[in-house]
């Protein structure tokens, strides 16, 4: 991690009040922590758009495990992309529903494509990909 550099920012009073409320609601220790996270988030989104950096992500899926062939399709896509899939966690939510959390790492566009394939399978009720930079910034 690099050395901390201080800089000042000028904002309108009402914007600062909203930002302070955001910091409290999100339970940031300081404004600086909040600003650092916002900057990292923006840089990560930019990296996704340009696909210049490796990212890490989790894909969370909720699905009906009684759906014919769904489990086989999920496993097939994961095996076809084992270069990018680091790990998977499977949990039983109810008698009918399962939760799967898949950890991925690689180019943003590739991870988005894998997530789209998995989220698009019949029987998937919810699918959400969360990505973050895989590098310290």
The gist of it:
With 137 residues, this protein is an alpha+beta fold. The chain contains four helices and four strands. The chain is elongated, with a radius of gyration of 19 Å.
Fold and architecture overview:
There is one protein chain. The chain is of the alpha+beta class and 137 residues long. It folds into 2 domains: 13-50; 54-133, ACT-like. Chain A, domain 2 (Alpha-Beta Plaits). 41% of the residues lie in helices and 29% in strands. The protein has helices spanning 13-25, 31-50, 70-80, 108-119; strands spanning 54-64, 85-92, 97-107, 124-133. The termini are close together. The relative contact order is 0.19. The mean pLDDT is 89.
Give the end-to-end Cα distance, rounded to a whole number of Å.
8 Å
Name the helicity range: 40-55%
CATH topology grouping of the largest domain: Alpha-Beta Plaits
Shape descriptor: elongated
Q: Give me the CATH architecture of the largest domain, please.
A: 2-Layer Sandwich
State the CATH superfamily name of the largest domain. ACT-like. Chain A, domain 2
Percentage of residues in DSSP E strands: 25-35%
